[in-house]
Specification:
6-stranded mixed sheet, 34% helix, Rossmann fold
Length: 250
């Protein structure tokens, strides 16, 4: 049984059907590459999964049970965390503050337990592979590289026991080395038995880390297959045919 199952999800913005009748499943320990050109509906779909948008129609099921009143707190409570490429962290604050922002560790009197947050942050950032001595819980996020910032966001998701980490264009504007660091983080997520929805315009990046692919086109599900059934080149050719209107979305 899939951990997450979305059935017939649809979302309108005015007269525009941003997502129309899309089904998607994510099993535990699975990395799903979500692909599509600009305007394909990827951001709206993950916005619904993350609870940012409420679907106009359709169902969201967790472990086979439909969840009513789907919103951001509910999605988080169900184990879904989203790492946005450009809005994941507050740059002026420390790593520790960013990890626990909005969900601080508090003592019996209600005060924030800064010492415990620092200790937990230290363990988290080392566990995910940020081993540089220049990186500490009190380090300002502003001083981190793009890949390191993605690591902090993933550390936050892991601490709060995310079952699915949604990564929205995490390698945009990153160097090859930094992108590889993000791929290592995603592989670590899989090793932990967790799942990931990886959104990217770069087919090769997605192909490297994903187990299965979901391609969207103009708000609809256009194509889905496992890694064993395709190659990066075949995915590119299929998306090119979609763009030209040579094949239709499902």
């Amino acid at each position: 049984m899939p951990f997450l199952e979305c059935k017939n999800l649809s979302k309108m913005f005015g007269n525009v059907a941003a997502v129309s009748g899309v089904d998607i499943q994510v099993s535990k320990g699975e990395i799903v590459g979500l692909l599509g050109d600009n305007g394909a509906g990827k951001s709206t779909l993950i916005g619904m999964i993350a609870g940012i948008y409420r679907p106009d129609s359709g169902k969201i099921l967790i472990n086979g049970h439909e969840v009513e009143k789907w919103d951001v707190p509910t999605a988080r409570a169900m184990g879904i965390e989203t790492v946005f490429q450009d809005r994941a962290l507050v740059e002026q604050q420390s790593i520790s503050t960013n990890i626990f922002m909005g969900r601080e560790i508090r003592g019996t009197l209600g005060f924030v337990n800064l010492k415990r947050q620092k200790g937990e942050s230290e363990k988290l950032i080392r566990d995910i592979g940020l081993t540089s001595r220049l990186i500490a819980p009190g380090t300002s996020v502003l001083t981190l590289s793009g890949g390191e910032r993605q690591g902090v966001s993933i550390a936050r998701a892991l601490y709060f026991k995310a079952e699915i980490v949604i990564m929205d264009e995490p390698t945009t504007a990153l160097s090859l080395t930094e992108s590889e660091k993000v791929f290592d983080f995603i592989r670590r997520i899989k090793q932990e038995g967790l799942s990931c929805i990886f959104i990217s315009h770069n087919i090769y990046h997605s192909y490297d880390v994903s187990d299965r692919f979901v391609v969207m086109d103009r708000g609809k599900l256009a194509y889905t297959c496992s890694k064993e059934e395709t190659t990066a080149e075949l995915l590119i050719k299929h998306m090119q045919r979609l763009a030209k209107g040579e094949v239709a979305a499902q």
